[in-house]
Amino acid sequence: MAEDKDHKHKxxxxxxxxxxxxxxxxxxxxxxxxxxxxxxVVVLLIVIGTSAFFNFTFSIDNQxxxxxxxxxxxxIENQTGQINSLGKLVQNQALSIANLTAFTNTQKxxxxxxxxxxxxxxxxxxTLLTNITTLTNSVKTKEAVINNLKDQLGQTESxxxxxxxxxxxxxxxxxxxxxxVQSLTPVTKNYFVAAVSGSGGGVIVPMEVKFVGGTGIISxxxxxxxxxSTAQDSVRSAAIVAQQVTGVGLSGSDTTVSFVxxxxxxxxxxxxxxxxxxxxxxxxxxxxKNMNSNVLMTxxxxxxxxxxxxxxxxxxxxxxxxxxxxxxLVPVGQLVNVTGLEVVEVANINQAVGLIVS
Length: 358
Fold this sequence. Notes:
- The protein is rod-shaped.
- The protein contains 7 helices and 11 strands.
- The protein folds into 2 domains: about 1-125; about 180-355, 2-Layer Sandwich (Ribosomal Protein S5, domain 2), CATH 3.30.230.
- The longest helix is centred in the middle third of the chain and has 126 residues, at about 60-185.
- It has helices at about 1-50, 50-55, 60-185, 230-245, 275-285, 315-325, 350-355, and strands at about 185-195, 200-215, 220-225, 225, 255-260, 265-270, 295, 300, 305-310, 325-330, 340-345.
- By secondary structure, the chain is of the alpha/beta class.
- It starts with a helix and ends with a helix.
- Mean pLDDT is about 80; it is low at about 50-60.
- It is about 65% helix and about 15% strand.
- The chain has a 4-stranded mixed sheet. Strands 7-10-11 form a 3-stranded parallel sheet, sandwiched between helices. The protein has a two-stranded parallel sheet with strand order 4-6.
């Protein structure tokens, strides 16, 4: 834009210069015409003063000269008007040049300010580009770190899976070893069951559960004790629930449940009613835990681990109190009242284990 304005100024200056040259040319021509006109007048006066003849003879020539002079004066007047017009044109052009010069100076100031602003913005853009480059490099570095961590995580997960597999295998081997040790080492646990004497009173009979290496045979041994025909089924149910609770199989062990009555006469044990006590004793034997003999119980055992109702609970509770028990567990719905004995209802084998085994 500045170059266009400079070119325009240059063109205007050239036009002014040409106008001045043309004006000077016209002035010079005007002066020459005046000189010629003066000389002609002088000659004419001389001719008129010396001879009238010449005045008459050359009257026609004088008329022609007057016409020529008049024509020249008209030309001069016309050229003078042109000169005045050119003068006004020169004045107008000079005014335009002044205006353009002022406009150009203003534009130069504006352009200078814009250039300064552009330089500032350029510096700001360069700063932003530098920051972008720095952030890009930082992102690339962090991406590399993340990828490295992902690789490490993948390796760790693979190692964890390997260790989990080894742990599972070790657990399996440990369980197998435990079963082998159990099958080779006899395990005995003593407890008590509530029975009914021949006279109809309650009696507490010692019980022993013993595991020895074998093929999974379950048997019952009695002394001065009568058991019902369902006793064998009750012991099998107790073994099934004990395995479910402990997670330890008994297929490699033979199980013997013994009832020994050292008193006079023969006592009778209803097979199902001793099921819960037999199950708790088996669980304690498998886990190698102790049993609290101050807490006795009665109740049948179901395959799902629930404890069922029995008969003669009042006589059995009184026998437990006479044996020295402080707490007696009965099935839900069979609470009895015995002075000095806490009678507690239990719904399943886990509740009974929580109160007896430690």
